[in-house]
Specification:
CATH superfamily of the largest domain: 2-enoyl-CoA Hydratase, Chain A, domain 1
Order of helices and strands: EEEHEEHHEEHEEHHEHEHHH
Number of domains: 2
Distance between the termini: 27 Å
Keywords: Lyase, Plasmid
EC number: 4.2.1.101
CATH topology of the largest domain: 2-enoyl-CoA Hydratase, Chain A, domain 1
Structural class: alpha/beta
GO biological process, one term: isoprenoid catabolic process
GO molecular function: lyase activity
Strand order of the largest sheet: 1-2-3-4-6-8-11
Largest sheet: 7 strands, mixed
Helix content: 40-55%
Shape: globular
Pfam families: ECH_1 (PF00378)
CATH class of the largest domain: Alpha Beta
Radius of gyration: 20 Å
Strand content: 15-25%
Length: 279
């Protein structure tokens, strides 16, 4: 296992058992996102996306935080002092890697090991799945220092939880713990902190057994259909299935063969054996 760290030191990653563990790496700053960190995340996501030595990416934070949001000094004050052009460049970089993560080629999991504030809701929402430590802290603190939750955070909280929870969370600026975050739908599940990495790795190992083309098509479909009418979604999904088959029809055939002819698995109880599939 070799850990790679960017030249600036703000981002690190390691690949273990076909899982890429990607770290916010500013533990002394509770992993606040600076322009440098955002640029590094863009570069690392580019470097990793199409590598064949891993199949699932986990995003987490070094130390006691996932990410405490945007660095108020570096991202806001220092960037704004350089003028509108610098501000827009910083926004493109941060929003850009969150967007990349939303449509990433591999399944992604957010492992919220501690503080998750403000701008950190961007990469939280960008990941396909999310798990948190029960004592992790989630907060939209923007109202406490005089702005609204920008950078997509208001849309994200409204998307992930109900109207009353979203309104209270954004207007009051109060934190909720991992258990409440799971109840609200901000994460899939909250577990004791000492079991968090094990639980996330177990989920990653299950995903590694699935057809990767089907996983990519499925994660994209879930995001797309949320803003469609039923009829539009139905038509889109028919075309999406046809497109997926055009890339990987052998996988579809193999799955059907193992179920119908070989009777070697049951789709409701697990995935077909990828090792038997023709490349």
């Amino acid at each position: 296992m070799t850990r790679t760290t960017t030249a600036s030191g703000t981002v690190a990653y390691e690949i273990v058992d076909r899982v890429a563990w990607l770290y916010f790496n500013r533990p002394d700053k509770r992993n606040c996102m600076s322009p440098t960190l955002n640029d590094d995340m863009n570069a690392v996501l580019d470097e990793l996306e199409y590598r064949d030595d891993f199949g699932v990416l986990v995003l987490t934070g070094e130390g006691t935080a996932f990410s405490a949001g945007m660095d108020l000094k570096e991202y806001f004050r220092e960037t704004e002092a350089k003028g509108l052009g610098a501000t827009r460049a910083a926004q493109r970089s941060s929003y850009g890697w969150w967007r990349r993560l939303r449509w990433y080629q591999k399944p992604t999991i957010a492992m919220v090991n501690g503080w998750c504030f403000g701008g950190a809701y961007g990469p939280l929402f960008a990941c396909d799945l999310a798990f948190a430590a029960e004592d992790a802290q989630f907060g939209l603190s923007e109202i406490n220092w005089g702005i609204l939750p920008g950078g997509g955070a208001t849309k994200i909280i409204r998307e992930l939880t109900n109207f009353r929870n979203a309104m209270y969370h954004a207007m009051m600026g109060e934190n909720v713990d991992g258990k409440t975050a799971a109840e609200w739908g901000l994460v899939n599940e909250a577990v004791p902190a000492d079991r968090l990495k094990e639980r996330v790795n177990d989920v990653a190992q299950v995903l590694l057994q699935k057809n990767p083309v089907a996983l990519k098509a499925t994660k994209d479909a879930i995001r797309r259909v949320g803003e469609m009418t039923y009829d539009n979604a139905e038509d889109f999904l028919v075309r999406a299935q046809e497109a997926a088959n055009s890339y990987d029809n052998e996988g579809r055939k193999e799955g059907i063969k193992q179920f119908i002819d070989e009777k070697s698995y049951k789709p409701g109880l697990g995935a077909y054996d990828l090792n038997k599939q023709k490349s």
